[in-house]
UniProtKB/TrEMBL annotation:
Source organism, top-level taxon: Archaea
Source species: Halorubrum sodomense
InterPro entries: C5-Methyltransferase, C5_MeTfrase, SAM-dependent_MTases_sf
GO molecular function annotation: DNA (cytosine-5-)-methyltransferase activity; DNA binding
Record-given protein name: DNA (cytosine-5-)-methyltransferase
Region entry Disordered, spans: 122-142, 265-312, 365-387
Length: 495
């Protein structure tokens, strides 16, 4: 998707380019003239008309601090027209624009200026924001209430007061609830000052079908002129063990790491010499040793042995277990896919270089250090985190025989029934099994981390591999946001 820089103080307009190029044009124009330029999508507008789905007008939404678009993806799937995503990270915005409808706007959100938004985004029905959380994060040993990054929470409430949506949600780490005893009182007061009734709660993404025990604070605001919902937060759909609720409902068991990623098979570049370029383009990605038969046009790519492929639609009714629609809609039986006889080929599934023998010595489901962790197969992943830590190791280990004679990873003695722990940017944890007949474990790929965040396979991450890991770990799990947004759509907006 092409963007261009447009000066807000003169009639200068840059050429249509990718987000990074348009951002550079804006910076150069500012250096030359002192004028501020905004970034807007170069495609023609829709004339201000609300998009329709199944003949029903969609309520509009804006996503602030949107990053690569995890929250936007879930909000869109819940039936909203996401008219704008705003962030200052140009690389993450490229990913957002590549995958999702609506405008992407590169802007420092400490500057509360609604004029930078397209007109239809200045009075949305729904506003979401995920202010950066490093000042609160429990992974930060030097947490400080006065950390300037913490003030971004209150810039979000400033935007809330300026845009006046009917409903709003804010997502952040659990550390904001205990950095001091009164910080959340300040947050509630800011929402009320903006004119909103407010409630907050810590939600576990695993309780909503995400294969990751990612706990996040969700703050909901409902404009004071609207009736408060009878239930503020969505009911869980999953539990650690299958459960019958007091009202007779059934909660499915948490989705495990194995259920989420076991059908992916060997990543591109696995067992290849170090230094070989196995990068992914958002426009075109390759299979193992042969060119892909598809170009990325949206949907889930499923490349079959005969070279055919199918593209499934975006998740609106996610898969019963893995938080997504069935990966295969063809005459290939699903068990053949899982057995490796009809391997899936998806974007961002490339191996990274790592010390496999050392990784295989890590106890499954543990993290001896930020750079050394593994996910367990039989439970959800721990939280995936954004940062400089390496992604977790896979729960499977590699058979100690000629890798070029191996097909897909067969099922060996490994544990495989739990969701992942929280995924944080470039880090994920995994449980695996190491025995003498195995030569080691590998790091999870970007796609495997994305699966553990509940991203659909058609969602392509752009930029360097390091950036891709960070984009995944920073994201709101789409499946979690789908439930939150859908609940508010039904309970408050009543669409």
């Amino acid at each position: 998707m092409k963007h261009r820089a447009v000066c807000s103080e003169c009639d200068w307009t840059g050429e249509p380019k990718l987000m990074n190029g348009a951002a550079r044009d804006a910076d150069e124009h500012r250096d030359e003239t002192g004028h501020a330029a905004k970034i807007e999508r170069a495609a023609a507008t829709d004339g201000g008309r609300v998009q329709e789905r199944d003949g029903v007008d969609q309520p509009t939404a804006v996503d602030l601090f949107c990053g690569a678009g995890g929250a936007s993806c879930g909000i869109h799937a819940a039936g909203f027209d996401v008219v704008a995503g705003v962030d200052k990270n140009a690389v993450a915005l490229d990913t957002h624009a590549e995958n999702l409808p609506g405008y992407t706007v590169r802007h420092d959100l400490t500057d509360v200026d609604p004029s930078i938004l397209p007109e239809r985004a200045r009075s949305p029905a729904y506003l979401h924001g995920s202010p950066p959380c490093k000042g609160f994060s429990t992974a930060n040993d030097g947490r400080d209430i006065d950390d300037e990054r913490n003030s971004l929470v209150f810039r979000f409430t400033d935007w809330l007061a300026a845009l006046r949506p009917r409903v709003a949600t804010m997502e952040n780490v659990t550390g904001m609830t205990n950095i001091t005893t009164h910080f959340m009182d300040r947050v509630e007061a800011a929402f009320r000052e903006a004119g909103y009734a407010v409630r907050w709660r810590t939600l576990n993404a695993a309780d909503y079908g995400v294969p990751q025990t990612r706990r996040r604070v969700i703050t909901i605001g409902v404009r004071e002129d609207l009736p408060a919902p009878s239930r503020w937060f969505p009911a869980p759909t999953h539990a650690e063990t299958p459960t019958t609720t007091l009202d007779g409902g059934e909660l499915a068991e948490w989705v495990t790491v194995e259920e989420a990623i076991s059908d992916l098979g060997r990543p591109v570049g696995d067992h290849r010499p170090q230094g070989e370029n196995n990068g992914t383009s958002a426009a075109r990605w390759r299979g193992r040793d042969e060119p892909s038969h598809t170009l990325k046009t949206g949907g889930t790519h499923v490349t079959r042995p005969d070279g055919g492929f199918q593209i499934t639609d975006q998740v609106n009714e996610p898969h019963q277990k893995a938080g997504r629609r069935p990966m295969v809609e063809s005459d290939e039986p699903a068990n053949a896919i899982r057995a490796g006889t009809a391997p899936l080929k998806v974007p961002n599934h490339e191996a990274m270089n790592s010390n496999r023998q050392r990784l295989a010595q890590i106890e499954p489901g543990t993290a001896p250090s930020a750079a050394m962790s593994r996910v367990a197969a039989d439970e959800p992943s721990n939280t995936l985190v954004a940062g400089k830590a390496a992604p977790p190791a896979h729960y499977r280990t590699i058979p100690n025989h000629n890798p070029r004679e191996a097909t897909e990873y067969e099922a060996h003695d490994y544990e495989s029934d739990a969701p992942a722990t929280t995924i944080t940017g470039a880090r994920l944890t995994e449980r695996g099994h190491h025995e003498s007949q195995f030569e080691g474990a590998r790091r999870l790929t970007v796609r495997e981390c994305a699966r553990l965040q509940s991203f659909p396979d058609w969602f392509v991450f752009t930029g360097t591999k390091t950036s891709q890991y960070a984009q995944v770990g920073n994201a709101v799990p789409p499946r979690l946001q789908y439930h939150v947004a859908g609940h508010l759509r039904d309970e408050v907006l009543r669409y």
